[in-house]
Amino acid sequence: MCGRLNVTDDEFVRGLCISLGINLHRTPIIPNRFVRAASEVQIIREVEGQRVMQKAVWWLLLEPTTTGFKPSKYTSFNTRYDKLNVPRSAGYHPFRTSRCIIPARGFGETEFEQQGKKKIPKHYHDLVAVDGAIAFGGLCKEYVNKETGEVTIGCSVITLPPHPKFADIHTKASPLMLPQDTIVDRWLDSDNQNVDSFSHLLSPSIRNDLDVIQIDKPSQHHSNSKPFRIAKD
After folding, report:
1. What CATH code is assigned to 4-107+134-205?
2. Which residues pair with 214 in a beta bridge?
């Protein structure tokens, strides 16, 4: 997964948030078709037994500055599935104590190719859930400003092995898309450290039908091919 999300304020994303216990009158959705890595995104998590939707930096590892926190030099907008149970990895403790859900309508993938010593973009695709929203499985971590007490949250999306249906789109990884059933209650339960119960989620799976379109650039979002559909698993 290459670091962009499509968050809409429509019936589908609203429905997902409401089903997860979020009061959208109190915390409205902030729509953004092009959420970049290291920018602000909204996450849903459990705090003191209550579901809340909060702003977070889409970068799990943050470092202090004179004015707060900024993304670390270590790339961490994604957390690989095979690092979740490695004790010294950045995602080990958050996987056990601070899992979250990132609600979105879709996501973008960029395929790179090697040219000499450089990797350059080969093509870009945007993928949008058909008549639904996607519950991305993520991790989060709190950072407290020692002087002001202000809390900044960093987060990441868990990535899985590449999915065969994405072979022509992105060959490096696929995002964890959670099933929207009772598993989300266990996922958001901050007291639940039985991560073995999530093992079945760490294989690539497409939970929604996805409309796919190839685009020129994420910032411009001009279609340059005929859209097609990928069926859910």
Report:
1. 3.90.1680.10
2. 125
